From TrEMBL:
<dbReference type="InterPro" id="IPR008183">
    <property type="entry name" value="Aldose_1/G6P_1-epimerase"/>
</dbReference>
<dbReference type="InterPro" id="IPR025532">
    <property type="entry name" value="G6P_1-epimerase"/>
</dbReference>
<protein>
    <recommendedName>
        <fullName>Putative glucose-6-phosphate 1-epimerase</fullName>
        <ecNumber>5.1.3.15</ecNumber>
    </recommendedName>
</protein>
<dbReference type="InterPro" id="IPR014718">
    <property type="entry name" value="GH-type_carb-bd"/>
</dbReference>
<comment type="similarity">
    <text>Belongs to the glucose-6-phosphate 1-epimerase family.</text>
</comment>
<dbReference type="Pfam" id="PF01263">
    <property type="entry name" value="Aldose_epim"/>
</dbReference>
<dbReference type="InterPro" id="IPR011013">
    <property type="entry name" value="Gal_mutarotase_sf_dom"/>
</dbReference>
<keyword id="KW-0413">Isomerase</keyword>
């Protein structure tokens, strides 16, 4: 039985969404991918960017919100980029509310994992606490008998008024891998600013990050994460991306709490790891 503020709604194409209308927050999550698409604390601006080109079709990866990249990030394996989780059908297993907001837990069924990842006995669930901010935690357990490698990201799309004025602080002097320059390792000097395509894995840094973007400024906290992906497709890649408007790059950027690059983890039998992010408007 769901709390009154939470409804399950099917769109005409047969895709199911969890729709939340709570006194503290409104939000929408697709069951496919346990994909948080929208989250707006009441009386504030949206915390997440979502593409207006979203076709909302089953099997189509939605562009925006927080896609879950699991159990590998990017091209860490030759199969589908960013793993299997974002297109898989998750199950809403818990949904509660209190005066501060809502709590939801989604589980990826064991049958889906064994079918799509044969020989990889993972258990995984994601929890969202939504209210004045977003608190998302992706928890993975190795339930097998052998060590298994895990790379992952909470691929968070954040809105900005203008990419030209946006900057990220908290990464000064951090090392990063530049995916656009032969995966070379470099060191950040000062804030991250955007004036061309940018695709980087920062590592060795678990600090809070600040997106300075006028009214869209947010604080991004991380848990269990010593790496963060920062991404903006800029002009040319915007034209090639699925479900992305040509000028979308002007209004978004991604700050992705991750276990990527050198921060990929090896989970021993029985070991559990939680990757978390908390996002809230900056004062
Ligand atoms: O198009 P996708 O699979 O959603 O990926 C989007 C982007 O995701 C980012 O995390 C990667 O660093 C980029 O390289 C990638 O282009």
């Amino acid at each position: 039985m769901l709390p009154d503020c939470i409804q399950l709604i099917d769109n005409p194409a047969g895709k199911t969404f969890v729709v939340i209308d709570h006194p503290q927050v409104s939000a929408r999550i697709a069951l496919e991918g346990a994909h948080l698409l929208q989250c707006t604390p009441k009386g504030q601006l949206p915390l997440l960017w979502v593409s207006p080109d979203d076709p909302q079709l089953p099997g189509k990866s939605l562009r925006g919100g927080i896609p879950l990249c699991w159990p590998w990030f990017g091209g860490d394996r030759p199969a589908a980029a960013h793993g299997i989780a974002r297109r898989a059908k998750w199950v809403l297993s818990t949904a509660t509310e209190d005066s501060q907001g809502v709590y939801l837990r989604f589980d990826l069924p064991a049958a889906c994992i064994s079918e799509q990842l044969p020989g990889e006995p993972w258990q995984v669930y994601v929890e969202f606490r939504l209210g004045a901010g977003i608190d998302g935690q992706l928890t993975t357990t190795n339930v097998g008998a052998e060590p298994m490698k895990l790379s992952q990201a909470l691929h968070t799309y954040l809105p900005v008024g203008s990419i030209h004025q946006a900057r990220i602080s908290g990464l000064d002097a951090s090392c990063y891998i530049d995916a656009l320059d032969g995966w070379t390792h470099k060191t950040q000097a000062g804030d991250v600013q955007f004036n061309a395509e940018l695709d980087r894995i920062y590592y060795g840094n678990g600090d809070n990050l600040y997106l300075h973007a006028g009214d869209n400024s947010v604080v991004v906290e991380r848990q269990g994460s010593e790496s963060v992906v920062v991404w903006n497709p800029w002009v040319d890649k915007s034209l090639r991306l699925s479900e992305f408007p040509a000028e979308g790059y002007l209004r978004m950027l991604c700050i992705e709490a991750a276990n990527a690059g050198p921060d990929a983890r090896v989970l021993q039998p029985g070991e559990q790891h939680t990757l978390g992010t908390r996002i809230q408007h900056a004062d």
